[in-house]
Amino acid sequence: MSGGFSSSLGGFASAFTRCPNCGLQLAEADRVAGRNRPAADVVSICKGCAEIIVFTRNDTGLALRATTASEYLSLNEEAQGLLRVAHTLVREQLKRRAC
Questions:
Q1: Phi, psi for residue 89 in degrees, rounded to 5
Q2: Could you say which DSSP state residue 2 is in?
Q3: pTM here?
Q4: Rounded to whole angstroms, how far apart are CA atoms 89 and 95?
Q5: What's the maximum distance between 2 C-alpha atoms anywhere in the chain?
Q6: How far apart are CA 10 and CA 12, in angstroms?
Q7: Contact, 54 vs 74, CB < 8 A?
Q8: Which residues contact residue 65 at a Cβ distance below 8 angstroms, ignoring those fewer than 6 apart?
Q9: In the chain, where are the structural domains located?
Q10: Which residues partner with 27 through β-bridges?
Q11: What is the pLDDT of residues 6-65, one digit of tens each?
Q12: Cα 53 from Cα 24, distance rounded (Å)
């Protein structure tokens, strides 16, 4: 999904701030993926499906997309560790909701 502009969401229209995997809205109040002003190369995790999401720059601004394995592996060890913990926590939360 590509980025659009809206003053209420740190420069993003809510239609362009959904997880590319499950469609969950990633914008909350005036924040997108936990940031007031997301920029390129920001990595987040979807609370709905635990997909690792990355903001990238494209012709129209910023876009949300799932990260690739090579991008994940190119992150430093600390970042990979934090994402693994976040992924595990979200997956556990999803399992509890399903029960």
A1: -65, -45
A2: B
A3: 0.65
A4: 10
A5: 43
A6: 6
A7: no
A8: 1, 20, 53, 54, 56
A9: 7-98
A10: 32
A11: 334 445 444 467 888 898 888 777 776 666 666 666 788 888 888 888 877 777 777 788
A12: 12
